[in-house]
From TrEMBL:
<dbReference type="InterPro" id="IPR002678">
    <property type="entry name" value="DUF34/NIF3"/>
</dbReference>
<dbReference type="InterPro" id="IPR036069">
    <property type="entry name" value="DUF34/NIF3_sf"/>
</dbReference>
<protein>
    <recommendedName>
        <fullName>GTP cyclohydrolase 1 type 2 homolog</fullName>
    </recommendedName>
</protein>
<dbReference type="Pfam" id="PF01784">
    <property type="entry name" value="DUF34_NIF3"/>
</dbReference>
<comment type="similarity">
    <text>Belongs to the GTP cyclohydrolase I type 2/NIF3 family.</text>
</comment>
Length: 352
């Protein structure tokens, strides 16, 4: 039976999982026995060797009941308490998030079991199971991907794309203009300016606007053709870059996106030494459009009887001295001075 036929009699989480399994080409965990057996290569541990802070990625249903009816689904990048509260206000049934979730870390410091049932919310995660499924991220950065390795150097999640510039994009400047226009950067700039004016906070900063595409090696007039595209936060190292350049010696341009590197990073120095262009592209805050939007559209196509929402968070920063709401500033300073820095003897007893 087709997913569209199943959905006519009412969609549940089990049907959503089937849809995601189709989208991912069979990568989803459909039964928890797959985790114990080690049979799913997309179930991986992420660990910086900080005691108690590792997390297991489980591309599947993390919290909830497979038989739960679903009519409103939110697709997001990273589960946070803000997303949970938005889902509550919108009366969503299910959150499908890209990044792995973890008790308390993803839910306001409390266990899922104490928080999510309040709003009758279920959660599915994907991450590694979604990597490499579509060429959109490379298209948005101005090239056709020819080869993709989602475990470059044997490191799960260490994605490397080998690509060739899109027709008509022949220079570094052309690539960068393509990135800015396709990401709708001008909207983010206008939105930030409006928010600054409304809040009375001219120094307000926002993640996407603060991280524009940059050229760290070469000039905007330099020609581009053969591209290597990597993501620094996945563990991609200088040794990985040297290996990639041995494999693809025709490379003239390197792109780093989602995360970025600084001007003095060893990989940038390597690019300069070899006369290669080096561009940093869209930051992580844009991935909700790069990866989240195609996933949401695919779910909408397969589950026509459900409402699909794209959940996009904005991260802003303002100097303490520049906060526009003076009443809240006065509140913050009073709490700090009377209860936080004055010493234990001046504090009131709190049960929370």
């Amino acid at each position: 039976m087709l997913l569209s036929e199943l959905s006519r009699s009412g969609t549940d989480i089990g049907i959503v999982l089937e849809a995601l399994n189709r989208i991912s080409g069979g990568r989803m965990v459909m039964n928890w026995e797959e985790i114990a057996s080690g049979g799913n290569p997309y179930v991986v541990m992420k660990n910086s060797n900080i005691p108690g802070k590792s997390v297991m990625e489980i591309p599947g249903l993390v919290f909830g009941d497979k038989n739960k009816p679903v009519s409103r689904i939110g697709v997001g990048m990273t589960l946070t308490e803000s997303m949970i509260e938005l889902a509550s206000g919108m009366k969503l049934d299910l959150l499908v998030v890209h990044h792995p979730v973890a008790d308390a870390a993803s839910s306001g410091g409390v266990p899922f079991a104490d928080y999510l049932p309040l709003y009758d919310l279920a959660v599915i995660e994907m991450h590694e199971a979604f990597h490499g499924l579509h060429p959109g991220l490379t298209f948005l950065h101005g090239h056709h991907k020819l080869i993709t390795d989602i475990s470059f150097g044997g490191l799960p999640g260490n994605v490397l794309h080998k690509g060739i510039a899109l027709e008509g994009l022949t220079t570094v400047g052309g690539l960068m203009a393509h990135m800015a226009s396709h990401a709708g950067r001008e909207i983010d700039v206008d939105l930030l300016e409006a928010e600054r004016a409304i809040r009375g906070e001219p120094a307000l900063q926002e993640a996407t606007v603060a991280n524009p595409p940059l050229c760290l090696s070469g000039t905007r007039d330099c020609p581009v053709r053969h591209i290597l595209h990597f993501f620094p936060h996945t563990g991609f190292s200088l040794q990985h870059m040297e290996q990639a350049l041995l494999m693809y010696p025709e490379t003239d341009t390197i792109i780093a996106s989602i995360s970025r590197v600084r001007e003095n990073h060893p990989i940038v120095e390597l690019a300069r030494q070899r006369g290669l262009n080096f561009i940093v592209g869209n930051p992580h805050s844009v991935e909700i459009m790069e990866n989240g939007l195609p996933l949401a559209c695919a779910l909408e196509k397969l589950l026509p009887d459900t409402e699909i929402y794209l959940l996009r968070e904005r991260m802003t920063a303002v100097p303490l001295s520049g906060i526009g709401h003076r009443g809240m500033v006065a509140y913050g300073r009073e709490m700090a001075e009377k209860h936080l820095v004055a010493g234990p003897s001046s504090r009131t007893v709190s049960i929370y």
